[in-house]
Specification:
Layout lengths: L3 H55 L2 H14 L5 H28 L1 H4 L2 H15 L3 H6 L4 H21 L6 H25 L10 H10 L1 H12 L2 H10 L2 H19 L2 H15 L3 H38 L4 H10 L2 H16 L5 H26 L1 H25 L13
Length: 420
């Protein structure tokens, strides 16, 4: 965990996390001040919709394509066909996402009145779709592309202070969110050939379809996850006011930054988890047991930090208009611990063992539960209803994953499970 390829991957992914979440936090107080409660609520709603586009194009390739490449590299085989099939599949999904957004901006008034802003954010979705992070992750060569992303986002944050002056500049703010994705994607495609010596092999439709089928269960679980992450802001915005969205998104932004400190660790370890899983159930379980105290310790630390830092953030960052966000943040600070434990059980154990269907079953049920609970609570509690729903949902996911592992006889004894 402290040396070699996993450590390099982890450090690089934390750099990406810094670029994606921590760097924007530098501009967070400035955004709150120039956009105001309603403007920031609209900004949060648009980005939540954009994350649905990223979800669609990511599909599940961050795990399935990485897993396939790791397995093929162990055997000493070429990976160009996987690179080509995955890229073409993502392009097809990008077209589907564009069609969906076109329908929304034409048919739904709430989207039509700000259609131009949604399409600016969609440029970032396109950049994300063309960014083969999973390829560099499988090769343990993430520093090659993470540096480009960090630099691009740092420039974007600097330009934000120069170019955006008031709520009327929300289009500029969104351009500065989208542009780094495009820059990083272009650089990554060039580096894939130069540094990894991976050639893009054009697949037939059958190859792209096979990639989609392989990732379908992970996509379903990711879609359900989005129902209780980015989807919460969308549900809240459709039921309540932009002001309530602003209060919730302000707190959620900090929570996402905290949870994001777990994600890079999980992504860095995953290729190793996939390799160990090829040795059998017992080896995978031993590996997961070693990871639990590490991830659990990180989760506890982040939860405590969120609870204790919330009042400080209220004074230094949120301001009087966002005072309610402080208490929302304290409640939602329980989420990082649940995410950390769930990451080990799901991403580091179930997916490497190809228990994708069981994993997605838990997440889908949780996502539907979250939406139903939020819809029931938001009319009377507003942003609090959404915060309560997502906090409960994250805790229930850990329980559900543990139950599925026991039913599959991965934990608690029994023969090696049949992939499902």
């Amino acid at each position: 965990m402290t040396r070699g390829k996993v450590a390099r991957n982890a450090i690089s992914l934390y750099g990406l996390h810094g670029a994606s979440y921590l760097l924007p936090l530098i501009a967070f107080p400035y955004l709150l001040s120039i956009l105001g409660l309603d403007g920031f609520g609209l900004y949060g709603f648009i980005l939540a919709v954009a994350r649905y586009g990223i979800l669609i194009t990511d599909w599940g390739f961050g795990f399935t394509a990485t897993r396939a490449i790791s397995e093929r590299r162990v055997k000493g085989e070429e990976v160009g066909t996987i690179y080509g099939a995955t890229t073409v599949a993502r392009l097809l999904l990008l077209v589907a996402a564009a069609v969906a957004l076109a329908v929304l901006t034409i048919a739904v008034e709430q989207f039509r009145k700000d259609a131009g802003l949604y399409w600016i954010a969609f440029v970032g979705v396109a950049g994300s779709a063309m960014f083969p992070l999973w390829l560099f992750q499988a090769f343990h060569r993430l520093p090659l592309v993470i540096g480009v992303n960090v630099a691009a986002r740092a420039v974007a944050v600097g330009l934000l202070f120069v170019l955006a002056k008031d709520a009327g500049d929300l289009n500029i703010v969104l351009w500065l969110w989208s542009a780094p994705w495009v820059v990083t994607a272009i650089a990554a495609m060039v580096l894939a050939k130069i540094s990894l010596d991976v050639s893009f092999v054009m697949p037939g439709l059958r190859g792209a379809w096979a990639a989609l089928v392989d990732g379908r269960h992970v996509f379903v679980s990711n879609a359900a996850i989005t129902l209780y992450t980015a989807g919460n802001a969308v549900v809240l915005g459709l039921i309540s006011t932009e002001a309530e969205v602003g209060l919730y998104v302000a707190a959620e932004t900090i929570v996402i930054a905290l949870v994001g400190l777990i994600g890079p660790l999980g992504q860095a370890v995953f290729p190793r988890s996939a390799e160990i899983a090829t040795q059998g159930k017992e080896a995978a379980v031993r590996h997961a047991k070693r990871l639990l105290p590490v991830f659990g310790g990180v989760g506890v630390a982040l939860t405590v930090a969120g609870v204790l830092l919330a009042p400080v953030l209220g004074t230094l960052v949120f301001g009087d208009e966002f005072e309610e966000s402080v208490r929302l943040l304290q409640l939602m600070s329980l989420i990082p611990l649940s995410v950390a434990l769930g990451s080990v059980l799901g991403q580091q154990l179930m997916i490497p063992l190809k228990l994708d269907r069981r994993f997605s079953t838990v997440i889908v049920i949780a996502g539907v539960f979250n939406v139903c609970l939020a819809v029931a609570l938001v009319p009377s509690l507003g942003a609090w209803g959404t915060a309560i729903a997502v906090t409960i949902t994250e805790a229930l996911i850990v329980v559900g994953l543990a139950v599925q592992l026991r039913l599959a006889r991965v934990i608690g004894g029994g023969p090696t499970p049949t992939p499902a």
